[in-house]
Specification:
By secondary structure, the protein is mainly beta. The chain is built from one helix and 46 strands. It has a 30-stranded mixed β-sheet that branches. It is globular and about 80 Å long. The termini are far apart.
C-alpha cells in the first residue's frame, strides 16, 4: 500500500477511488433509466427532464422525444436493448453543422411523429425501425437498412433531396404505408434482402429497380402498388401466396415491367379447381421477359400439377389444372444439427407404390439439388421411419425437401424444412420443429448460451410485426410455443441475446 498510495497522499488517493467508484455507479444508473427530451437541442442538459443528457452509446431502457427537437452531435448509437420513441405530433431533425453524423440503431425505434434526416448524415438501421400509422420518415441523406435490420412502414416515407441521396434496403422492409422517391436512388443490394407489404411505392417518374433479393407483395393477401416502372433482375425471387378461396397476392404497376428471376408460388389450404387461374401482376405499360423457373410449395397431401405462367397483354397469369394426391402420406419431416452434420428424419403413415425418396437441399430455399436417395417400402399401411445424414451441410440455413418417386416414375414433393448450421456451431443456432406445424412448435438453441438471458420474438413475416415477445430465463435452451392463437401463414422466430440475432422462418398450417 505504501508504494501505491504514500501516507501523505492517502486522502487524495481515497478521493480518486471514490470518484471512480461513483462514476461507475452513475454510468450504470444512467444507462438503466428513461430519458425524456422535452424539446430543443439534444446537447443542452436543461432540455432533458431531470437535466441529464443520455450516455452515448445508449445501451438499455428508453429515450422519448416529447417535443420538437434537433440532434446535431457527431454520432449516436442505440443499443440492442434500448427503445427510441418519437411521440405523435413531434418532429426530430437529425442535422449536421458542417460535419457528417452517424446514427446507428441496434435496438428499436418507434416513430409516431416525424423524423427528418437532413444534411450529411449516415443512418444505419441494424435493429427494428417501426414507422407507425400517421408517422413520417423524411430522408434527405443516406439511409441504410442493414442485413439484420427490419423496417416496418405503416406511415409515410419520403426519400431524396438531390441525386446523391440514397435509400438502401439490405435487410427486411415491410411497406404497408407509402414510399415516395422525391430524388436520389432506392437500392436493394443484398441477395437475402426482402421487400414486402401491401403499400404504395411512388417512384416519381423513375423505376423500382430490384436486381436481387426477395419481393413479396401483399399481406396474406393483398396488392403492392408501384407508380412508375418495375425492373426485376435475374437475382430476384418473387413470392406469391395463393389461397384456396380464390384470393392471391399481386403487384399493380402503372408503367412498364421487365421480368427476370424466379417465381415462387405458395399455396395455402383449400380446394383448387381444374382450370382455375390467378392474375399476379398487371402493368399499365408494356411487359417484357419471363420468370424462370416457376416453383411452388403446398400443404402436405395435395400438390398442384400442370401449373403454367403465361403473359397475355400486360399481365402475368398463373393457370392450374388438376391436383395429384401424394401416394405417400407423410406424418412428419424434421431436421436437427448433430455435431458437424445434420440428421433428417421423417415418418410415413402409408405408402402406395413408393419406389424411393430423394433428399434435396438448397442454400437459399428455391434452387434444390439432390443429396441422396432412400429406398421406399412399396405399398404399406403401417408407419415407416426413415433417416438421412447430411455429412457436409452448408454454413447458415439449409433448406431440405423430399422428392417421392413411384414405380411408374411419378414424382411429388414434400414441404420444405430449414435447419440452421452455424460455422463451428457458434452463435445461437436456433432449430424449430416440426415445421410446418398446426398446434405447436418446439424451439431449441445452442446450450452454450444458457448462462445468459435470451429474448424470443415471434414475427409475422408478411408485416414484420412483433406479435409476441418472451423473455427466456437462464439455464433454458428450449421452449414449446403454442400456435393455437395464430392464423395460418408464414412467421419468423427471432432469438436475441447480447450482440447475437438469429432468425428462422416457420409455417403455421
Amino acid at each position: 500500500m505504501n508504494k501505491l498510495c504514500p501516507r501523505h497522499r492517502f486522502g487524495r488517493c481515497y478521493r480518486l477511488s471514490l470518484f471512480i467508484f461513483s462514476f461507475f455507479i452513475l454510468s450504470h444508473s444512467i444507462n438503466g433509466q428513461d430519458f425524456i427530451l422535452t424539446g430543443g437541442n439534444w446537447s443542452v442538459a436543461s432540455n432533458w427532464a431531470g437535466g441529464v443528457i443520455p450516455p452515448n452509446p445508449f445501451k438499455v431502457s428508453s429515450i422519448t422525444i416529447a417535443g420538437n427537437a434537433t440532434l446535431d452531435i457527431n454520432s449516436l448509437t442505440i443499443g440492442v436493448d434500448a427503445i427510441f420513441t418519437i411521440n405523435s405530433g413531434v418532429s426530430l431533425d437529425i442535422t449536421s453543422d458542417g460535419f457528417p453524423i452517424t446514427f446507428t440503431n441496434d435496438g428499436t425505434i418507434e416513430n409516431n411523429g416525424m423524423l427528418n434526416i437532413l444534411g450529411d448524415e449516415n443512418f444505419l438501421n441494424n435493429g427494428i425501425f417501426n414507422n407507425n400509422v400517421g408517422a413520417t420518415l423524411n430522408n434527405q441523406s443516406s439511409f441504410v437498412n442493414s442485413t439484420t435490420g427490419v423496417l416496418n412502414n405503416n406511415g409515410g416515407i419520403t426519400s431524396g433531396n438531390d441525386d446523391e441521396d440514397d435509400f438502401g434496403n439490405n435487410g427486411s422492409m415491410v411497406n404497408n404505408g407509402s414510399f415516395f422517391r422525391a430524388d436520389g436512388t432506392f437500392t436493394q443490394g443484398d441477395k437475402s434482402s426482402s421487400l414486402s407489404g401491401s403499400g404504395i411505392f411512388d417512384m416519381n417518374g423513375s423505376s423500382l429497380d430490384l436486381p436481387r433479393g426477395i419481393l413479396s407483395p401483399g399481406n396474406s393477401f393483398g396488392t403492392m402498388s408501384i407508380t412508375g416502372d418495375l425492373i426485376l433482375g435475374a437475382g430476384v425471387s418473387l413470392q406469391i401466396e395463393i389461397g384456396g378461396d380464390g384470393s392471391n397476392d399481386q403487384i399493380s404497376i402503372s408503367g412498364d415491367v421487365s421480368i427476370a428471376g424466379t417465381l415462387n408460388l405458395i399455396f395455402g389450404s383449400g380446394e383448387f379447381s381444374s382450370g382455375e387461374n390467378w392474375t399476379i401482376l398487371t402493368a399499365g405499360g408494356t411487359l417484357s421477359g419471363t420468370f424462370n423457373p416457376v416453383n411452388f410449395t403446398a400443404p402436405s397431401g395435395v400438390m398442384p400439377a400442370n401449373l403454367s405462367a403465361t403473359y397475355p397483354g400486360s399481365t402475368t397469369l398463373i393457370t392450374y389444372t388438376g391436383a395429384t394426391f401424394l401416394p405417400v402420406e407423410l406424418s412428419s419431416f424434421t431436421g436437427k444439427v448433430n455435431n458437424q452434420t445434420i440428421l433428417l428424419e421423417w415418418q410415413t403413415a402409408s405408402e402406395i407404390n413408393n419406389d424411393y425418396m430423394v433428399v434435396e437441399r438448397s442454400g437459399e430455399g428455391w434452387q434444390f439439388s439432390e443429396l441422396g436417395r432412400v429406398k421406399g417400402q412399396g405399398t404399406t399401411l403401417e408407419d415407416q421411419f426413415y433417416e438421412f445424414i447430411d455429412e457436409a451441410p452448408l454454413e447458415g440455413i439449409n433448406y431440405y425437401r423430399l422428392r417421392q418417386v413411384d414405380f411408374d416414375s411419378t414424382e411429388e414433393y414434400s414441404n420444405v424444412i430449414t435447419v440452421d448450421m452455424l460455422k463451428n456451431q457458434e452463435g445461437l443456432n436456433i432449430q424449430v420443429f416440426p415445421n410446418p406445424s398446426q398446434e405447436f412448435i418446439q424451439i431449441e438453441w445452442n446450450s452454450s448460451f444458457i448462462s445468459q438471458n435470451n429474448s424470443l420474438h415471434l414475427i409475422k413475416a408478411s408485416t414484420g410485426q412483433v406479435i409476441q415477445q418472451i423473455d427466456i430465463p437462464r439455464a433454458n435452451n428450449q421452449l414449446v410455443l403454442s400456435l393455437d392463437h395464430l392464423p395460418a401463414g408464414l412467421y419468423i422466430i427471432q432469438m436475441v441475446q447480447a450482440n447475437f440475432r438469429n432468425s428462422v422462418p416457420f409455417m403455421k398450417n
